[in-house]
Every structure is written in C-alpha cells, then in structure tokens.
Amino acid sequence: MSEPTRESGAPLLRIERLSLALPEGADRLYAVDNVSYDLTAGEILCVVGESGSGKSMTANALMGLLPSGVRVAQGRALFDGQDVLAMDELSHRALRGRRIGMIFQEPMTALNPLMRVGEQIAEVFEAHDLLTPRARKERALALLEEVRLPDPTSALRAYPFELSGGQRQRVMIAMALALEPELLIADEPTTALDVTTQAQILHLVKDLQARRGMAVMFITHDFGVVAEIADRVCVMREGKIVEMGEAREVLDHPRHDYTRALIDAIPADVVAAVGRPADVLAAVERPGGAIPPQRDGTQSTPLLSVSGLDKVYRTSGGWFQPKREVVALDGIGFSLGKGETLGIVGESGSGKSTLGRCIVGLNRPDSGEIRLDGVDLSALEGRALRAHRRRIQMVFQDPYASLNPRIRVGMAIAQGPIANGVPKAEALAQARALLATVGLDGGAAERYPHEFSGGQRQRIGIARALALNPELIVADEAVSALDVSIQAQVLKLLDDLKRELDLSLLFITHDLRVAAQICDRLIVMQKGRIVEHGSAREIFNSPQHPYTRELLEAIPGRRDAPAPVTATAGVL
Amino acid sequence: MAYVSLILGRVGKAVIVLLAILVFNFFLIHAAPGDPAAVMAGEAGATDQQFLDDLRERFGLDQPLPVQLWRYMSGVLQLDFGYSYRQQMPVLDLILERLPATLLLTGAAFCISLLFGIIAGALAAMRAKRPSGSIIMGLALLFYATPLYWVAMMAVLVFSVTLDWLPAYGYSTVGADYTGLAHVGDVAVHLILPALTLGLFFMAVYTRMTRTSMLSVSQQDFVKTARAKGLAPGVIQRRHILRNALLPIITLAGLQAGQMVGGAVLTETVFAWPGIGRLMYEALMQRDYNLLLGIFFFCALLVILFNMLTDVIYRLADPRIKQGAT
Lengths: 572, 326
Description:
The complex is a heterodimer.
Chain A: E1 13-21, E2 30-39, E3 44-48, H1 57-63, E4 71-79, E5 82-83, H2 89-95, E6 100-103, H3 117-127, H4 133-146, H5 152-157, H6 165-177, E7 183-187, H7 195-212, E8 215-220, H8 223-229, E9 232-237, E10 240-246, H9 247-252, H10 257-264, H11 268-275, H12 277-285, E11 302-315, E12 324-337, E13 341-345, H13 352-360, E14 367-372, E15 375-376, H14 382-389, E16 392-395, H15 409-419, H16 424-437, H17 454-466, E17 472-476, H18 484-501, E18 504-509, H19 512-518, E19 521-526, E20 529-535, H20 536-541, H21 546-554
Parallel strand pairs in A: 3-8, 3-9, 6-7, 7-8, 13-18, 13-19, 16-17, 17-18
Antiparallel strand pairs in A: 1-2, 1-4, 4-5, 9-10, 11-12, 11-14, 14-15, 19-20
Chain B: H1 2-31, H2 36-44, H3 49-59, H4 65-77, E1 83-84, E2 89-90, H5 91-126, H6 131-145, H7 148-162, H8 180-217, H9 221-228, H10 233-245, H11 247-258, H12 265-270, H13 276-285, H14 289-317
Antiparallel strand pairs in B: 1-2
Helix pairs in contact in B: 1-14, 5-6, 5-8, 5-14, 6-8, 7-8, 8-10, 8-11, 9-10, 11-14, 13-14
C-alpha cells in the first residue's frame, strides 16, 4: 500500500468548482453545478439530497462511472493531489478499488449472480495483480470475518442468491475494503434494507471507518442516517449545494428551507420521544404533531373483520421431490372500522404483503374469514366475488412497474369502471376528474406513465384505486419507493382523501416513521404472526413485544435526533 | 439425492411422452390418404385385387387399426421397429446406418453456429457504437432473413461451380476409396458447404441474441461493481457480462440441438447428403409407414433428450436454479 504523500491536515479529496453536464434535452443543464467541497482522512461526509439532486453524480465521476452522455464541464476533483477527472483510463483504473472503494444501493443486484462470493472478493486483488490465488482466498475469508458475516467459511463458497440482503451488503463492504482504500464511497448502501439490518450496517461502516481511519463519503436521502453517522453534511438540491456544515449544526439549526423540509419530513419528534417519555405528551398534544390523535376504531362498526387467516406457500418440486413450505400467515385476526387507518408494520418476510393481497383477493388464504360488512369474501367465487372486488382497491408499491407503459394514464384509470359497466366516455371523464382530485392537471390523462415522476405515478395509482368508489383501500408500501418530501405529500393526499371520501385505509409498511404519520392503530407482524397491536400512540410509547422494541430502536437518528422541529402542515 | 430423483422423475415423464407420441404418430400416418400396398402394386405393374389383398395380408394391413397399433407398440417395446418392405431391411438397421451422417452434418452445423454466433454477437456488443458492430449486425440480419435453400444453391454456385474450391454434393468422393486420414479429410471437405448452409440461420440468431443479451447485462449493477473494483474492461466483458449473457443462449441452443435428426431434410436433399432427412423424404413418398414411424420416433427421442440435457446444463450454468427454489 503506498503511503499517502500529502501533508497531514490537507484534505484527502478536494472537489473544486465541479460541473457535470447532462445530455441535451434533459430537464436541466447540469447534473452537478459548480460544486466544491473537501473531505479529510478519518471523516464521514454525508451528501444528502433527494433523487435527481445530483448527489451520486460526483461520486460516479470520481470512480469513472458516469452514465453515458454525462460529461465533466468544468472543475477538478483532486484525490491526494491528483486530478482524477483528467487521468487516463489506466491510472484511473489503478485507483479504483485500490485507493477508492465504493458500495452501492442495491445489494440484490450489485453482485454477479453466477460467481461465488469468495471469487468476487478475490477478484479485487486480481484486478490489481496482488497476492497469489491462495493468499487472495485467505484474505477474502479474513474480510468476511471482519464484516461479521455469520459462518464466513461457507459464505465464501456461497452464491449471492443464497445470502440475505444485509449479508450481501456486508459482502459488498468486504469487497470495497479489501485493499484498504483511503476513501470509501457509500451510495445509499442501506436504503434497500430492513430497518434493523440498516442499523447494523450503519454501525459496521462507522466501526470500520474508525478502526481504519478512512474518509467516507456517504450518500443518502435520509436525515435519520445523517444523524446516526455523519461528521459533516452537504445538502444538495438540483445539482447545487444548498447547505454544508458540521452535522450537529445542520441538524439542530438548518439554515436553508430545503434542509428544514427534509429534516421535518422525518417525524423526528416521535422518534426522539421513544427514548424520552417526558417529551411524548408534548409531541402528542401538539396539534398537527406526528402522532395522530387517538381515535378509537373499535367503537364504530367494523368494515372489515379478519379472523383465523392462514396461508402457507408450498412449492412442489415434481414427482419425487419433497415439498417446501413457507408459512406466510398464521392465525391472523383483526378488525378495521369505517374511516379508520390501520397500519400493518413488519420487515420483509413478515407476511404483511401476503395479508394485503389476501384481503384484496389477489391471493387466496388457506383458511379463515375475511368479512367485509359481514360478507365472507373468502367464500365467494366468480360473479359474486367480482361484485365485491370493487369495494376493496389496492395501491401498489412500485409506481414504475404497476402502470402499463403502453396505456395512457386516463385509460388506465378508466379501465376499472369500464369493466364494471360504466360507458367509456363517462369513465374517461371521471378519470380526468380523479386526476384533478389527486393533484394532477387534466391533460395528464392523455399522457403515458413514463412521462411522470415517481410521486406523480403514485398519485395516478391512487386515482386508479379511487375510480371504483371503494370503501377500503389497501396501500402496500405505497410510499416506500418515494423520496421523503414526496412521501410526505402522498401521505397527506391519502389522509385527505380518506377523510373526504370516508374511506378506510389499510396501510402496509416496513417503515415505522411512515406508519406514525398516518395510522390510527398499528399491527406489528413477524414471521406471519401478529406480535403486537394497539393504537399508534401505545405502540410508540410503550412497545410490549421485544420485536417491536427492536424495530423502534433500529430507526436511524433515534438517539441523536435533533430537538423537535415544529411540524409544518405542508409537510405532514 | 435430490438430483437423482429429479432425473428419475424426468425420465419417467419422458417415457410417457414418447409413448404418447408413438400412438399419435401412428394414427396420424394412418389418417393420411394413400395405401402402401397400392403404391407397391402400382410400382410392380400389377393391378389385380388378389395381389393387393395378398400384400395387405402379408404386411398385416388387413387387420383393424387397434390390432395393428398393438402389434407395432409391442414391437417397439422390444426395440423392434418393424421391417421396411420397400428397402427390404429392418427399420432400425436403416436408421442406424443413416444416423451417423446426419449427426455429423447437424452436429457440425450446431457447433459452427454456436461458436461463431456467440463470437460475432460479443464483438457486435463491444462495438455497438462503431461501424464494425453495425456490419456484423447487417450480415446477421441478411442470413437471418434469407431462405435456406437459396443460400444452399448460391453457395454451390459460387464455391463449387464458379470457384471450384469445394465439392457440390455427396458425402465423399465417389470411387476414390480413401482410407484413414485421407477419408476423414475427404468427408470434411464435403461437409463444409452443407454444414455452413445449415448453420447460418442459427448463427445469425445467436449473434443477434448474444448482442442484445450482452448489452442488457452490461447495464446491470454488478457490472458497475466490477468496474469499481478496477478490473480491466476485457475481464469485465468476459467474466461478468458474457457469462451472464449466455444464459438465454442455452435455451435456444437446446432448441436447435433438438432438431438435429429431423431438421436437415432440405439441406440433405440439396447437397445429396446420405442422412436421415433424405431417408425420411423417400419413406414419405413411398408410403413406407414403418420406416416413417421409426424416424419420427428417433426425432422425438432426440428432442426429449436434448431438452433434458438443456435443463441439466442450465442448472450447472446458473446456480440460482435449484430444484424446489422458486
């Protein structure tokens, strides 16, 4: 490993007036516009912004991974005194992996599916002609131990699909750290992970950084994460830096409105309150605070009541194959009142999505009852079931995949009513009105899904669900794919519509912070069972089940949460 | 253990499918108009009813269909595919005699198309934005769209008639009686034109598919990871992009391999190649039911075998596909 030549105190990385030009016809001229910042060894800098803010672009430029069409328009990026943007490909390649390591957002796709984990780690040494094949393997094992992968010896021989998301991210980190780089770039490394896993990974990154004295550039959209690990923060919006400073300072006294909006989008007061009971009442009693006022859903007549719901997924492998079983739902029972919002919270694999799909009728439960206004839906079939389907509609998680790309938005919304016998012209007129209801202009009906942003598409998804005048809406991770500020807008829309149209809402999410913003009552699920249920307030203030406590503790930013910021109506 | 039971299950299903195909083919062939006895009698120049009846009785054609089916099936189960009265030989011997020539031709075509198709596709993908990439794709499109018989005739015209580089037809030089290496060389020279002709279409398909597949794989996240490691571009192309891009090719190659016995009728006819394809054509024209059924059986057998082989190879190539995994 070559010794750094710079004198102590000088920044390891200095970005000077960097501008990255987008291809012609993009919605703005520069992905990154005249950006300058420094990063010193041993420091964690969080670059924060929402999608499209250009926060990852600088990192990609450093690694020579800019998407085609994006080019450096001006400025320099000095790494240890050398301008990496002006380097030839060969010396740049020597830098990548060796002195600058990078980890990515999607642990599911960032590893080659056909190569064993050990081979992929050893490849880093091979790329820089270091060590013998045997020594590479030993180092790979040592690295897997260092990132605390359970059973590193067998992980070495495992294929990526055999590991969980969190384990894969640990492998990615092991790979990035293999050659002890001086700079680690982490591009949203925890966004795709469950909250408990996220906490572990954050802890690991911080721990490794402290032990090795690396500089870390941590790119995120989440101020909770910032509060957890950052030394300094750089807030970006539309390619420009809007605010930069010490983490504590920015979190406690954000100067720019945008920073404040981002921080506010996290119900920090609730989250902070978990550990400090004294503040809880203050948070709850404040009008517009993040914990909704308690409304007792059980007193009104239940719209939906579910009892004894079981669902087991079986895969049969053929004539001589043993069957494999996964219990997705195990004796689920609850009820949902008219006009009530019930949150179903759990991590991936908890069965929460299966529950939603059973209620909408996309999956059939093995046993149990789903009663809507007293009618058992799980016993209905054919025409009778179709008549009731209208009453329960779903908003899906992925705003990109849940709209047919070849069908105009207006038609996508009108298809439901048309299938139920509404004349086409009338249905299309309704669709236009619905688009206005969800805050899109009428012209939107004539356009195709790809012309809309993620948040707009989710509004379209909501309009589509509303088109059939349902009584119950099941929202499955409906805001999980959205930026926090967009999340807040969509949540507000859902909440407003629910009140106006007297809807009931079943809100499925893995994110307790989101659940806190909208739900009256909560159900916490783990491995197909309900482990805890109660009002949102009860669950946040006095979680009974260890799993719920674990979930709450894992929320990033909890311990370091900033002083309560007044939640503005526009954000909630 | 799981692997053994998987194979057993597959073989069990394959046997059932084969038997069903036998029965189906049997009825299909008997539903077709024409009567082998009449054809034979016509060729012998005899037209009297007594002669026809004798022929029918001799070949069992006077029996009701179910009885004929029963006789045929019980024969097949003892590996007796009947007797070809036209060729005066047992069907099995006829087929086994012609099979090597066909497998040589189709096997060579298969290897040529797979090898050169993948190489050309990979080159085209790496040069997607350069003229050389476009030229490869242009050629691929040309061969993809051109009918096989036309390519065959043009190849003969150019390479045999005009240039006189290669023999125009046949399996070996008639009357030369080469032995040893000389014979191998002689057959190889005869093989070039038909094998290329037969392989061109699939080569074009592989080229197009490899290119598309590589370009889409190169957009995936793990390629970015590989670049972030500092790997050389060539290593990334080979180890990360090409390997993943080849998975869909395996499916297609299995499809092509399944046609190895029955897919060369046209080529064998044009190049007078003494293989199964020509045998099938003759059997069809002469209403040689037993022979035709035998060839059909071997075609089906090969399709099923290669389907199973494709599954096995796919499992080896892609660790994610495990029995029971969803």
